[in-house]
Design the sequence.
């Protein structure tokens, strides 16, 4: 597996440095690189510990809330035979990502309250000028939080809300991009079940094995709905259940577009 390309990350840091340059150095740091380095190391260690504690605490909070809400949604369904929803590790991943942004910003807010305006200004000046790209730490933390947190929170809410449940009599679908909208398809509504090898992209045909269900209203459900990766072999467990309940055979198709609507 090849290593990730560092160029986009370096470019991002350079852009942030242009947008949020570090404040100019003032005495006693302007003529004393040693004092700047020593104080920067001390304050970076202190703020790093605070930020890490906030990230860990917020991660557990967000992860716990996400799992609790996701589990409560299932109570109305009873015990479905098969259930597709966001894996616990995925909810924890997005929770940690969101908590990292919140923890970074909150640490700056707390330090400003603790230090006071003047001392906090000195803190920002020192740690910003000690960073490799000379980025204003406070402004960068606020920018990342207010720009990236809303879409991340929205994504987490959508993933918590989405699922597909297979009961004895029907499929219950709460699609990823339809917040709170639950659609129930009795197995009798299924018009066809297909094992698909790929699909027609804009410029070429793409191989993407998965299963697809076509309903009587013309809508299509595939085993890679939302952010899920299709697992053609293991997915056969519930696809065969659907085939038995609907009375349809699984038909092999080269392309999804060939499935009759």
Sequence:
């Amino acid at each position: 597996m090849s290593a990730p390309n560092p160029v986009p990350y370096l470019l991002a840091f350079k852009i942030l440095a242009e947008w949020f340059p570090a404040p100019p150095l003032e005495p006693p740091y302007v003529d004393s690189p040693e004092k700047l380095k020593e104080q920067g190391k001390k304050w970076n260690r202190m703020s790093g510990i605070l930020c890490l504690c906030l990230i860990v605490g917020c991660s557990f909070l967000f992860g716990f809330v996400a799992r609790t809400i996701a589990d409560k949604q299932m109570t109305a369904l009873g015990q479905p035979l098969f259930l597709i929803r966001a894996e616990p590790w995925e909810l924890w991943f997005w929770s940690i990502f969101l908590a990292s942004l919140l923890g970074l910003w909150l640490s700056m807010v707390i330090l400003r309250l603790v230090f006071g305006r003047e001392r906090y200004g000195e803190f920002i000046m020192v740690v910003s000028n000690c960073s490799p790209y000379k980025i204003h730490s406070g402004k960068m933390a606020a920018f990342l939080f207010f720009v990236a947190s809303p879409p991340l929170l929205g994504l987490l809410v959508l993933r918590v809300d989405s699922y597909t449940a297979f009961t004895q009599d029907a499929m219950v679908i709460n699609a990823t991009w339809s917040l709170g909208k639950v659609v129930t398809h009795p197995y009798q509504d299924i018009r066809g079940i297909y094992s698909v090898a790929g699909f027609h992209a804009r410029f070429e045909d793409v191989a993407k094995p998965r299963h697809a269900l076509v309903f009587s209203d013309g809508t299509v459900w595939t085993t890679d709905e939302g952010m899920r990766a299709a697992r053609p072999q293991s997915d056969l467990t519930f696809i065969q259940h659907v085939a038995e309940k609907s009375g349809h055979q699984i038909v092999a198709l080269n392309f999804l577009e060939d499935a009759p609507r």
Q: What stands out?
A: The first helix runs from residue 7 to 19. The mean pLDDT is 88.
